[in-house]
Amino acid sequence: MVSLMHVKCYKGEDVDVYTFEKEPLLFTVMGEEVLYPTVYLTWKIPEAFPILVINEFVYQKLLQGADLFLQGVIRPLRQTLEFGSHAAVGISVLTSSKQLRGPVAVGYSLMSSMQMIANGMQGPGVRLLHFYGDLLWDMGTHAKPLEISAGRMNLADALPGSYETEFPSLGSLVLDGKPSEVHVEAVKGSSFDTALNDRSKNNGLTNASEEQAEEELKDSDTVETLLERCFFGCTEVSCNQKRAAAIGCW
């Protein structure tokens, strides 16, 4: 049985919740055209939505009302779909026991996946609307999030060492790792991760070109030498012109 519920949030927003067999699977905020999944739906079809992975420390900040800043996103623990701005995005958590848990939250992107890459994965990226354990989740069957061991994905070396004192360092993370075939949530041929790899290759080519240009500049005349040559060249031409004029007068 399918039913529609009208809900008013504590901030005053009107929300429509679509339930199937008494379990909320979709919701939309009045005035918006985006249809968001609940955590229940992301557990049923996790491959249908882009998912970002964070650690427990970052997740606690999100529960306090903060936006997800891209510095807190762990990669490459999960390949994800390419998405646009204001698209529905799920959030999974890497626990201190190296379990990938979730999705545990749903929100919308503040920029597209391509813009995130262009910004170097910096700045606010996702605004959260719904969490595992909130009142919307409480309307359903109280099911728990999916969990899978990160060790089974051969990605233990990519895990950050601390979950309480700092965000994961993006510079220390591997960007071109392959997800294991046993990870049922992985999306093959992800354009999001492909773009990350292409960006790294392009940066390498750019750096090589800059180094070559610097070497060529060192081998050529300096700016001061060129200016000196031009000055003496102009002086010589000026003197010759004056001499020719003097001879003509005689």
Q: What does the model show?
A:
It is a single chain. The protein is of the alpha+beta class and 250 residues long. The chain folds into two domains: 2-206, Roll (Sulfate adenylyltransferase); 225-250. 32% of the residues lie in helices and 24% in strands. It is built from six helices and ten strands. Strands 5, 6, 7, 8, 9 and 10 form a six-stranded mixed β-sheet that branches. The chain has a four-stranded antiparallel β-sheet with strand order 1-2-3-4. The longest helix is centred in the C-terminal third of the chain and has 29 residues, at 191-219. The relative contact order is 0.13. The model is unreliable at 154-196 and 241-250 (pLDDT under 50).
Give the SSE map:
Elements: E1 2-8, E2 14-20, E3 23-29, E4 36-37, H1 39-44, E5 51-55, H2 56-63, E6 68-69, E7 88-94, E8 99-109, H3 113-118, E9 124-131, H4 135-138, E10 147-149, H5 191-219, H6 223-249
Parallel strand pairs: 5-7
Antiparallel strand pairs: 1-2, 2-3, 3-4, 6-9, 7-8, 8-9, 8-10
In short:
It is found in: Cytoplasm. The chain has 250 residues and is of the alpha+beta class.
